[in-house]
What does this fold into?
Amino acid sequence: MWRDWIPFWHPGLSPQSGDVDLLFAGLLIASALVLGLLFFLLILFCVRYRAGNEIDRGHRTSKSWHWEVSWTAASFVCFLGLFVWGASVYFEMYKTPTDELVVFVVAKQWMWKTQHAGGQSEIDALHLPVKRPVRLVMASQDVIHSFFIPALRLKHDVVPGRYQDIEIEVDRPGHYHLFCAEYCGTEHSGMIGEIVAMEPADYSHWLTQQAPASPLADEGGALFRQLGCSGCHGNGSQVRAPPLEGLYGKPVPLSDGSTVIADDKYIRDSILLPRSQIVASYQPLMPSFDGKVTEDQLLRLVVYIKSLAGRPS
It folds into this structure.
């Protein structure tokens, strides 16, 4: 049959793909109904009020408020329902599971670089276990990119200057396409890759077979000392700076009276824009490292500071 050689529709492979497909179908049906009604009225008026047709053309200023109010109210209720439906699917897709696996993604012209917590890195590929939520922490080295996996019905823009988070989960092993869905330069069409979903045992075996690499936290610690950060934030420092041990995930009081949670974005901003959020009772002495460290180095520094969360302050 035609379905065997014309791939009009591929089934989704994530827990939310069915909801996304239904929402997409609902949007198509609603749009088709509105378009069909407009064309029906257009054809009706063209035929009824054509030149030479004997029909009453008087009362041009009279209006039927009942029709206008009914049409406006019906359209509002219909599209508000679609909005609520879409919002519920969105929040379901972006909820944070407790047992998630964290993988870092750096987008640059024109490639995807993925980094696992154990130090294993890939170019234009991402290996992950099936039936386990994976949190992607994404950053762009240059321009706006868009991380798009059609089989999972997931797409997320990667904006330079900030971290983007997305939760993904694959139901079935296999190889799936990865695209950049935002035009990012002359070789945009070549910025493609693949998602390799594996059984958990196969994934663990794959990790052990990769080239030896030190964990990201260890590399971040070495970079932390290389950049001289330990001179202020290390034990025994002569400079009074906020302690980093036990910081991640905790509320941080700021000098303007507000409070912020020390997450990935806060740590990144503190490194690149240290004067934007000054910790209460501390002087703004830290220099900016904007332009001095790459996105790969920033990821390592963030992972290292996160690893200090279990240490007492």
